[in-house]
UniProtKB/TrEMBL annotation:
Residues 610-669, 695-729 form a coiled coil. SMART domains: TPR (SM00028). Residues 1-26 form the signal peptide. GO terms for molecular function: phosphorelay sensor kinase activity; protein dimerization activity. This is Histidine kinase domain-containing protein. InterPro entries: HATPase_C_sf, HATPase_dom, His_kinase_dom, Sig_transdc_His_kin_sub3_dim/P, TPR-like_helical_dom_sf, TPR_rpt. TPR repeats lie at residues 127-160, 288-321, 328-361, 368-401, 489-522. It comes from the Bacteria. Keywords: Coiled coil, Membrane, Signal, TPR repeat, Transmembrane, Transmembrane helix. The chain crosses the membrane at residues 670-694. It comes from Aquimarina atlantica. GO terms for cellular component: membrane. Residues 725-912 form the Histidine kinase domain.
């Protein structure tokens, strides 16, 4: 009597409510980029509004981002006590949590917003808030609260006069009417809102309403082409709006509707389209719905293994969330599959889990389905009182909801139950009620189930021909029958039993084989067992005893695959008894046959005796065959027991092998670990030695560098001392002598001797040059004078005796006067050396010197427009080597840029 169907209820007809309310939420990358740029260039007060705008931009596809930006807005708003923006941020966070399925968090934030707007009056924000609250309470099945908030939303919308808000408010109420089965109000309101939406060119609202209108038509079992037309228009608008959230919802709703109309291939396509979108954008709750829908589609087609795989995937995701509705739905569907596979205790376990969740959610529509499933499980366990109690509970709820399909299914179940209880009048009453409703709906599956149940009723009353007529009507729908595996199995089995009763064993065998083939595909143990049993009986009637025994063995194995070891002796005794009987009968048979042959060949007079003997022989043959059949059955039981023992031994060997494998794996892992540790230690040692070598090398290089610098310093110090000594000699020795010579010559001069006057003048010039040279060689002059003045004085003196013009620049000049004595001396000497080189070699008419200090670095750039030189061919003279040495002493570097006949630029860079 199986009547397990996929759920009659839709996966929430109003699923598309997750689209935006009056606010357009389709993500626009350009808008997000623009807002992000504005955010970076705005002040704190402006950032509050920009953060909220960013939250709205992400609201439709990236809820985590929306929550992040809204929370940042709250932090800034609290700084300025901006309650209006705090309230708006809580609304956005609440909606994001609703979409993510975190309903407790959603309610907390939306209630916070409600408290704020009860003080801070903003009717526009209240309209949005009540819309989001309504959506939340629809998803949590609190329809009274949902209706209350949607009516408040409509009232305020009419007051402030916004057509758009009025249209959205009516749209929200359509969802409530749908849930409560008020189809007339839902349909009229939906078309009224759609007309407004089209006049407003609000595509999001049009999407919502097209889907709802499709659902209304489907709920009333209307034309599938009209339904698909509305879904198609909604999907086209969603694609235009680049709204993946809407696209996935539409595809899910469309797939569910197609599945309910038994268009399973088309349904699977739309489910897979939805799955692709949901995985791309992380819509985890919808992935649960998709897997659940795919499972129901497979269940409807009778592919229980595939259905179970989808439901297990859905359960894996739902267990990571607090989605009680999702858990309830999946437990219900897994329970349904266990019924189909004959695991009735398991099915009841899952179904009662589902029942608990649905009772807490007060979801009457789903409760009616669960009651019907539980009734079916108890029916299969022959607990008829419990089965009837649950079927009747389902009828009561379906009548409250006006669910005609659900009522029809429950009546079919009750009718089959009454047939099994031999209460045929009550059974006929329920089945005729079911037939009236099934015929109006035009559902093939339910009609097939009706014919099967009615045929069973007639069969049990001995009206075999009437039962056959009913089943022939099922055969006339065989193209549809192939789509529903479970009804297909039941139908072929029932036809087999009817033909068996009519003694048409070949036909019976054909239908039992058809039923067995599908049963094996579906892995339905109960149906496989039944078919083995009936095939055994058929082959016995067809005198195919070997096949009869074969299928009886299979029947016995699947009927009871576990035997108690205490039965071994009993089975052995039975086997010995039947073996003895069989031998005795065989001996008697041989004796009779011998007597028969003797009589046959010896005398015709004994014809009567021969005939009687033949009859005895035939009887003995039959008795022997029966004994052989019984013996074979008992032998199969013994073989089954031996098989069980062998299985246990094999399992022990497998466990031992697994243990050995595990030990070898552990040993291998230990070896690998030791190799890794040893390799690691070796690598560490090598690395340590390499590091020590590198550090020693660096240390050596530093010592060499320090020694080089010390050598250069010693050289320069020696030069300075030599300069000082030469300066003293020039000043005290040669300078003093020249002064004395000048004085003596002056005494000799009388003024008229021109030649003597000329000599005195030359001596005086020589004396001044020696005096200047001695002062230039002595560092105290450098130390007592500011660097800028020192250089400028030097260049001024030089320009008096040189043929080229000299320009100089200091930036900033004040910082150059703060140089240390060491830098001042060395930089001064470098300047002298470079100017001497220009005088000697450059043939320039313009020289420029720049002293620049930036970020604690001194850049000295000297440039001339002379003949230049070849840096690769020219060997470094004493002057250039002195410059490099002094630069190195100051930890600096020198760069030469020169081209033949184009001048030279030398740049020296030293730390200040």
């Amino acid at each position: 009597m199986k009547n397990i169907l996929k759920s009659k209820s839709f996966i929430k007809i109003f699923l598309v409510l997750v689209l935006s309310f009056p606010v357009t939420r389709a993500q626009n990358l350009n808008v997000i980029d623009s807002l992000t740029t504005r955010l970076a260039n705005s002040n704190e007060r402006e950032r509050i509004s920009i953060l909220l705008a960013l939250a709205k931009s992400h609201q439709n596809s990236e809820q985590k981002e929306a929550i992040k930006y809204a929370n940042k807005s709250i932090l800034l708003s609290e700084k300025y006590n901006d309650q209006l923006h705090i309230g708006r941020a809580h609304i956005l966070i609440g909606d994001a949590y609703t979409v993510s399925g975190k309903f407790d968090e959603a309610e907390k934030h939306l209630e916070q917003a409600k408290d704020i707007f009860s003080v801070v009056k903003s009717e526009k924000d209240e309209v949005d808030l009540y819309g989001y609250l309504g959506e939340l309470y629809i998803k949590t099945n609190n329809y009274d609260k949902a209706e209350e908030y949607y009516l408040k939303r409509l009232k305020i919308s009419k007051k402030i006069g916004g057509k758009k808000k009025i249209a959205w408010s009516i749209n929200n109420l359509v969802s409530i009417y749908l849930e409560r089965g008020k189809m007339e109000e839902a349909e009229s309101s939906a078309f009224e809102a759609l007309k407004l939406a089209e006049s407003l060119k609000d595509k999001n609202l049009q999407i919502n309403l097209h889907v709802k209108i499709a659902d209304i038509i489907a709920y009333q079992h209307g034309d599938l082409d009209k339904i698909s037309e509305h879904y198609q228009r909604a999907l086209k608008l969603a694609v235009e709006k680049k709204n993946p959230r809407a696209s996935s919802a539409i595809n899910i709703n469309w797939a569910v509707t197609l599945s309910n109309y038994e268009k399973f291939k088309e349904a699977e396509k739309h489910f897979m389209d939805a799955l692709k979108t949901c995985e791309q954008y992380g819509y985890h709750n919808r992935i649960i719905l998709v897997y659940s829908g795919l499972g129901e589609t497979s269940l409807g087609k009778g592919n229980y293994e595939k259905a179970m795989n989808y439901f297990v995937k859905a359960l894996g995701i739902v267990n990571k969330t607090n989605n009680k509705r999702g858990k309830a739905s999946i437990y219900r569907k897994i329970g349904a599959i266990h019924i189909e596979q004959g695991s009735y205790e398991k099915s009841i376990e899952y179904l009662y889990k589902s029942l608990g969740f649905y009772e807490a959610l007060n979801d009457k529509s789903s409760l009616s389905v669960v009651y019907n499933y539980i009734g079916e499980a108890f029916y299969q366990l022959n607990n008829f009182s419990k089965a009837e109690e649950n079927y009747q509970n389902g009828v009561v709820l379906c009548e409250e909801l006006g669910d005609q399909k659900g009522i029809a299914i429950s009546y079919l179940s009750l009718g089959a139950l009454k047939v099994k209880q031999k209460l045929f009048e009550e059974a006929m009453l329920y089945l005729e009620k079911a037939h009236d409703k099934v015929k109006k709906m035009g559902h093939s599956r339910e009609l097939i189930l009706y014919y099967n149940a009615m045929a069973e009723c007639k069969y049990n009353q001995g009206e075999i021909e009437e039962a056959l007529d009913l089943m022939l009507q099922v055969l006339s729908m065989e193209h549809k029958l192939k789509e529903f595996k479970k009804p297909e199995i039941e139908s072929y089995t029932r036809l087999g039993t009817i033909y068996y009763e009519l003694q048409k064993y070949e036909k019976a065998e054909m239908f039992f084989r058809k039923s067995l083939k599908t049963s094996i595909v579906m892995k339905s143990k109960m149906e496989i067992k039944n078919n083995y049993f009936w095939l055994s009986k058929c082959y016995e009637k067809l005198n195919k005893y070997e096949k009869s025994l074969e299928y009886y063995k299979k029947y016995s194995i699947i009927k009871d695959s576990i035997f108690n070891l205490n039965k071994i002796k009993q089975i052995a005794d039975i086997q010995i008894k039947y073996d003895t009987d069989k031998k005795e009968k065989e001996i008697l048979f041989l004796q009779k046959e011998k007597e028969y042959q003797t009589i046959l060949f010896n005398s015709q007079k004994n014809e009567l005796y021969r005939v009687n003997l033949e009859k005895d022989l035939e009887r003995e043959r039959k008795e022997r065959d029966i004994i052989q059949l019984k013996s074979a059955r008992k032998q199969s039981e013994i073989e089954q027991l031996n098989m069980q023992n062998n299985l246990e031994i094999a399992e022990k060997e497998i466990k031992n092998n697994q243990l050995s494998i595990q030990k070898s794996r552990l040993a291998r892992e230990l070896l690998i670990r030791n190799i890794i540790i040893g390799g690691g230690v070796l690598a560490f040692i090598v690395l340590f030695l390499a590091l020590m070598y590198y550090r020693q090398r660096l240390k050596t290089q530093k010592i060499i560098a320090r020694k080089e610098i010390e050598a250069i310093n010693a050289n320069i110090n020696g030069q300075e001392k030599e300069r000082e000594r030469i300066a003293k000699e020039l000043h005290d020795g040669i300078g003093g002598n020249l002064a004395a010579i000048k004085l003596d010559l002056s005494k000799l001069s009388n003024g008229s001797n021109h030649e003597l006057q000329k000599v005195i003048k030359n001596v005086n010039g020589t004396y001044n040059e020696v005096r200047t040279l001695s002062h230039d060689l002595i560092p105290p002059k450098i130390l007592k004078t500011s660097f800028e003045k020192l250089i400028k004085d030097y260049l001024n003196n030089l320009s008096k005796t040189c043929s080229f013009t000299i320009s100089n620049d200091f930036y900033p000049s004040s910082r150059f006067n703060q140089l240390t004595d060491k830098i001042k001396i060395e930089l001064y000497r470098i300047t002298q050396e470079l100017m001497n080189n220009i005088i000697k070699h450059a043939q320039a008419d313009q020289v420029s010197l720049q002293f620049i200090m930036i970020d604690k670095r001194i850049k000295f750039i000297i440039e001339d427009n002379g003949i230049g030189f070849d840096t690769e061919n020219i060997s470094k003279g004493i002057g250039l080597n002195n410059i490099l040495s002094r630069t190195k002493v100051l930890s600096g570097n020198m760069h030469i840029d020169t081209i033949i006949n184009r001048g030279t630029v030398i740049e020296i860079d030293i730390p200040a």
